[in-house]
Amino acid sequence: MNENEKIAKVIWHDALQKSFLPFGWGLDFNDIKVTDKGTEFYLFKTECWIEVRYLAELNLYQITVKPENEETEITYDCVPLDKIVAVINDTVSYGLASYDFICSKYGVIYKVAV
Question: What is the reported pLDDT for 106?
Answer without folding.
Answer: 93
